[in-house]
Amino acid sequence: MGRQKAFDKKNGLGFPLLSDPDRKIAKQFGVRRFGLLPSRRATFVIDTDRRLLGEITSEFDMNTHADEALELLRGTND
Fold this sequence. Notes:
The protein has a single domain (22-78), classed as Glutaredoxin, CATH 3.40.30. Helices cover 35% and strands 14% of the residues. It is built from 3 helices and 2 strands. The protein is globular, with a radius of gyration of 13 Å.
């Protein structure tokens, strides 16, 4: 079982997560960087119609990613 699948199962997310080992998607989304850290930490919330609902960026506070993504998914970030 892959890491994303295990994370989804453990946390009961119920939506797909993206793995980008070749960093091609990171480059397309503008978060790829060079050096020891391969990409900036970012969470993109994408609707089922493929519309970008929001981008959350925080290098140090992972709770920010989770909290803001949940707000976007719940439609409370108007």
